[in-house]
């Protein structure tokens, strides 16, 4: 059903239900869905969003502050099958178990009409493990779906790569990152442990295999069977020569780290229970293993167990209940610290095997421990979402004897904390609530600075949404399927801030599932909506689409050029006649498309010598240029008419997060992980005067203090001076015709400007116009009719889909 809205005398919206066309769903082939009522929320407390493209623009000098109107209670009885999930959300059952989530809104914002899309049900995966390389300042994060994300702590937490077990898939990014490269995962695969050995990254999981990753080509280099059943933990010695794996069968298996692979060396003395956690002594002579009810200390040379440390069950615990030692840490002074399922953090003397001290920190499990590099601080993560810090300090002023004392408790998570990293100045944590949290230790950083701000990373900064701006289509990427949606329509015009009536609702046209176990690593939709492409770690698929009214056909292109392999990113040219695919060795494959098939044209290569993958592809509107950016912080521009390198942008110290070529001036605009903005002239092969002025004056402090990266750059054809940017939390228009804001200027000044007279408003306006009315932006696209398509994923919708957290006792209950 479709809602037709009008405005009553009191300014509220009211609606009647009218029949509309069938909604179609496709799973490789066409499956028509029968009519079914879509029930709309009808309550003054609920907000109804309606998607609908609009053609005209309105010139409005006010700020970018949209508003919505409450809905009047509907006078008719609603169907009995109505399920109102949350404010603005309606779930309606369709045949074939298809759930259509209808959440749409059309508002006029400043110069644009906006389609607010909230039916992309992206759901991030829980964080299972982390590993930090202090030498390279790289953080590796493993998720429950097999994803491995790599962040650069030296570059504003830029997420450089994301890999999945046996293939790298979807990536999430932290502040300062952009479209991350992915090698897709596989169904049923999970990672239980991560480990750096030098600059090499290893993972292990319950399938009993150890995998090393090729970080240049973003794929697993190889996997080796440990032959010990599921692997619960892995740990490398500080010398980088041995890798230990704790297995289900009670063995600790030692692997020698060779130049090109690892090789099994021997087993340590076999135990009766599974090995849950491992920690090497810094000397490499001993290794501690956490098990059920005990900790074993092994001599790494002889393989024999030298000590057995019995872990008590705690007061009031049944004797039949085992205690799981989830995590151990072996310090340089032979102190062993353990965390267990009885909620205890215990300190042991590793030389004598005696218990020194017990800290009861929770009634639930202590799941993970992490130690600072100088071994003066230990943090413990619990299953109730808290993080407890212990410091090795004197309990009394003036005394020299030091003890492990509980000093702080943090609460940044709603669910289990499964992974922790303790850097010199911050605590990095992750768990079941899917968020990666960077919490600075205020005694280690200067207060009231960017470094002292808490940072939560909840959303991917890799683009999971493709838009056919000439056809009004959206492509949503999930791990194992794609969804193609057609936007709704409205034939009405309104005033700024007004919600518009919907003429046609959005429709899900196709659901395309992948074959096999490999997940999707990248996808693209051509601007005209006639081509769809996606890639897994093993293959590339290309489809020809025909959409005429409600008739949709999809045809697979059977023969693809052999050069289309090992693809990291896909992108179509603006005329939809070419497909660009970033491949191995930082190269880009160019393929020509016609009505029936595709033809290999050329492989674009630069001469910098970098082998790092291309994570950004940006063709120009006129089809003359292609800009690429890789994780070596390089930006190259290729001439597509001559099929050769035109020039390279001078290298900057921070990785580019978004790159785009201006359709009028031909200048390239780039934004980097440290929030710096540059404009480079392709004709002059130098930075533009506007860019030089920006660098001389400097960006506003409030812009530089943002901790989320710009992930998209676009331009307004009706006003060449406008640059459109967005990150997860805001949409921005930079007007190059206006002066840049001074450091002391009020940065967020749109509301103030609207209250000023026209002459004073012009005098106090600056180039940056910020809108924060959208909730957690996954994508913003400017359509051919100059309307904006904004894809949102409110964080509360993700939280609502998480499993229930551990029950916590509240005060006075």
From TrEMBL:
It comes from the Eukaryota. GO terms for molecular function: RNA binding. GO terms for biological process: maturation of SSU-rRNA from tricistronic rRNA transcript (SSU-rRNA, 5.8S rRNA, LSU-rRNA). InterPro entries: UTP4 (IPR046351), WD40/YVTN_repeat-like_dom_sf (IPR015943), WD40_repeat_dom_sf (IPR036322), WD40_rpt (IPR001680). GO terms for cellular component: 90S preribosome; small-subunit processome; t-UTP complex. Pfam families: WD40 (PF00400). This is Uncharacterized protein.
